[in-house]
Amino acid sequence: MSKDVLNAVKKKTGKSVTAKDIEKIASGVKPSTMQSEVQLRALIKQVSGLVNVKVSEETINDIVQAVKSSKLDTNNMQQLMSMMMGKK
User: Fold this and answer.
1) pLDDT tens across 29-50, in order?
2) CA 19/CA 46 separation, integer angstroms
């Protein structure tokens, strides 16, 4: 797990997250997770719970739409992380 990702999470949320925390969540993510709106919503809520940051339903909808409409390779989690953090 890149320290850049952990630092970005801390910077954006003010919460420290360990690589083990993220790996635990990531271990349950499969390419099909990105295809299923129900699973994707559950993942977003799981991550928001990890950092103890409430995510509005509107924001969840925006994230779901962004993932579904992107040409993202769902096998590439680094690409997903970059998209979610607003990097090109």
Assistant:
1) 887 888 889 999 999 899 888 8
2) 15
| DSSP states of 18-86 | -HHHHHHHHTT--HHHHH-HHHHHHHHHHHHHHTT----HHHHHHHHHHHHHS---TT-HHHHHHHHTT
Residue closest to 67 by CA, chosen among 55, 77, 56: 77
Q: Whole-model pTM above 0.85? A: no
Q: In a 3-state reduction of DSSP, which class is residue 15? A: coil
Q: Give the whole-angstrom CA distance, residue 26 versus residue 69.
A: 21
| Amino acid occupying residue 24 | K
